[in-house]
Structures are given as C-alpha cells and as structure tokens.
Amino acid sequence: MRAFLSRLEALGNRLPDPLVLFAGMALLVVLGSALFAGHAVTHPGTGDPAVVQSLVTAPNVRRMFTDAVRNFSTFPPLGTVLVAVMGIGLAERTGLVAAALGGLVRSLPRRWLTAALVFAGVNSSIAADAGFVVLVPLGAALYAGAGRHPLAGLTVAYAAVSGGFGANVLVTALDPLLAGLTEAAARLVDPAAVVPATCNWWFNAVSVALLTMVGSAVAERFESGFGPWGGSVVVDEGPEASLWGAGAAAVAWIAVVAGLVSSGILRGEDGGYAPLYEAMVILVAIGAALPALAFGIGNGRIRSSTDLARLLAEACAGMGGYIVLAFAAAQFVSWFAWSNLGIVVAVNGADWVRPLGLGAEPLLLVMVIVSGVINLLIASASAKWAILAPVFVPMLMLLGVSPAQTQAAYRVGDAVTNVLTPLMPYVPIVLVTARRYVPGAGLGTVLAAQVPYAVAFGVTWTLLLLGWVSMGWSLGPGA
C-alpha cells in the first residue's frame, strides 16, 4: 500500500495546476476542431445537422478575443458560487461553523461519539475548511480523552469529512457550482435545460444517514487495529459561546421563507415550486449569514458595520483562486460549445453504447468509477466536472439518463476516493495531527487506514444511487 501510494503521489505531482490543465484542454479543443471540422451528426433536440466548426478560422479566432470577458461573466457557476460563499464564509469566519460542529460532537453521550463525528464530518462540507481544520484534530483529541486511540478518531473524522464530501442535509456552495456546469453541458442537447442547485438535495440528505451508519460501523470494526492507547489528553472544550442567538436567527429566517412560500410569492402561477428552487442559492446565503451575524455580535467578532464588511470581503477573497480558475474554465467550456465537438462526441458515444442495451444503472456505475479514478490525480471537484460534464452529461442524456443522475454519480465517485489520494490539499493537516500522538506516523499510515472507509462508502453509496434510480425517484427538487 505504501509503495502504491508513493507511486500515485509521484504521478499526481507531475500533473500541472488545474489552471494549466484548462488552458491545455482549451488548446486541445482548438486542435480537435480543426482536425474534425465538417464532421456532422443529427442534433437530437432540433433534428438539424450539428457540424464540427473549426476554431482556427478568422471569425472564430476573433470571437475568442471579443467574447472572452462575456464568457467569463456569464460562466454559469460564477455568480451563484460567490453569492453562496458570502453567506457561508461569514458563518465560517465568525466561528459559527466551528462552534456548531464542535458543540454537536461534544454534547452527545460518549457512546454516540463515533456516530456524532461521522455525522458532523459528512455535513461539514457546508464549509469544507472547517471540517478539515476543526473536526480532524478534534476527533483525535476526543478519542484520546475517552481513552481510545487518537489515530482511530483522526481516521474516522477524516474519512467522514473527505469521503463523505458532497453529501449534506443542506444545499452547500458546491451544489450551485456543479449544477451550473451540468446545466451548461445539458444545453448542448436541450437548449432549454435547467438544472437547479437543488437537483441532488434529497439524495444528498439521505446519503448523510447512510454514510453515518456505514462510517460508524467501519470505525467500530477496525478500531482495534490501532492497538491500545496509553496516553491521555485533556480536551479543551473552549469558551462557552452562546448559539442561542444564531439559532433564533435561523428559525426566524425559516419562518420568513415559509411565509413567502405559503403566500405564493415564491411559487409559480401554476402553484409549482420552481421559483423557490431558483431562489435557493440566495435563500441559503441569507440563511447562513443571519445566524452568523447574530453569533458574531454575540462573541464580539462583529462590533461594527466595518467588521461585517471586512469578514464578508475575507470570505470572497478566499475565492480568488477559484475566480482565476473560472476564467480559464469559462473559455474552455465556451470554445467546446462553439466547436460542436461536445454534441458530436456525445451523439457518437451514445450511438456506440446504445446497441449494448445498457440501462441507466450500468451507465451510472461507469460514471462513478471514472470520476473515482480521475479523482486520485485531480483533487478539485469543480475542475474535474468542468472537464467531464460537457462529454458525459449530453452523452448519457441521449441514453435516457438525466443530468441530475449523472451529476449524482459523479459526486459519489469524486467523494469516496478523496480519502485515498495523497494529493488532497488537507493531507498535511492530517499528518501533523497524527504525529502529535504517534511521532512515526507517515502518509502510508494515514491513507492505508482509510481503505476500509473508501471501500464501504463506495459500495454502499453506489448501491443507494443505483437503487434510487431504479425506483424512479427524483434526486431532488427540480431534478
């Protein structure tokens, strides 16, 4: 295992930054459009011919320059992600997320310690940094304080935060990001396609319950493998920060939203809930910001409007890397659409797969495996999906698989192998924490302990998805 992980780490380290990957993919689109120019298929949505357009012609080269800013400003995930991050980032920077996660784990009886860690870890994707930075060290300390091996607590916390990434009882900032890319890809087949941020919500929420049970069972089964623990640690409970104000603000906002829905303001003329789904990103942002504001005022981190503005700016400043990446991704996605390579590849791929008679379930299984393997080398969820979505979403649409189902399969595969890749940017935090208790702990020690979680999460979560699809259930509102 150590040898395999070392080779995997060396291979992954040779890959360029996702920014360079997108630039390279954009150049490949230009080259591919020139090589296959004139190749045509029948567009399944309109019945008209879809012909590969060369991007090296004078009009298209000119368009690359004149439309570059427009490509970026209209990039589907950009605005929704930034809006969501303002609210969620405020909750993280006022300490609300850390206090809520820590309080949840500490408040439950000792016998529920493992389940509480898994549940909090899976849901920590509402603010991923808080999960890695708070829960992983906290899990080790809590286990040690209970007389259990701290590496067991570290392992279960890291498995939940990383391997359960994407499952959540709430809509997170990742949902509009992925849905925006999925919608852009789906419109290669259906120009009117709409993929709301809530399209996987119900499946994600049920996944939390599944992963909590499975993660707890795996943790209890393999904890003995860490051996006895002879040390002791006093867990610092930290200052008693009041969450009552934050809770009251959250309840008040839920009541406001319920009133807007019941009055018909957030419902369509036909009584449907489409406006509610479309407004979900701003509703979630406000729903995170109001409790964060109350909590920040209560703990003194927000004493004036200047403090509030500064924390909001810091939340957005942390997205600087994403904004730069989004510019490159926007050009790649736009050029891919202009060339018609996406729809041509999708139609040809569907024509090749259709005679095999595969149903939705085998196709989604392949999607889980593909995303899981690629995830070992490219850690960024958005970077991988921006590359995969323009091919797999339209191709599987032509085979009867909805965009929401393809996106859900991607999320499962993307999450379960997170715990195995040494390229996860938070691996150093895990290693440093492990060496506080076991000085000789190395990368192999940490990642090899995650194998049971990766296998258990991968098998059970995939079975849940395939069973869900086979029953014909919707994955979420608006799916």
Report the structural category.
Answer: mainly alpha
Strand content: under 5%
- Indicate the low-confidence ranges by residue numbers: 234-240
Overall mean pLDDT stands at: 85
* Strand neighbour order, sheet with most strands: 1-2
Tell me about this structure.
The chain is mostly helical. The chain has one domain. Helix content is 68%, strand content 1%. It is built from 23 helices and two strands. The protein has helices at residues 2-13, 18-35, 58-66, 68-73, 76-93, 96-107, 113-123, 128-145, 150-163, 174-186, 201-222, 244-262, 274-278, 280-299, 305-317, 320-339, 341-353, 360-375, 381-398, 403-416, 427-437, 443-448, 451-470, and strands at residues 40-42, 49-51. A two-stranded antiparallel ribbon has the order 1-2. A hairpin with a 6-residue loop joins strand 1 and strand 2 (49-51). Helix 5 (76-93) runs antiparallel to helix 10 (174-186), helix 19 packs antiparallel against helix 20 and helix 20 (403-416) packs antiparallel against helix 23. Mean pLDDT is 85; it is low at 234-240.
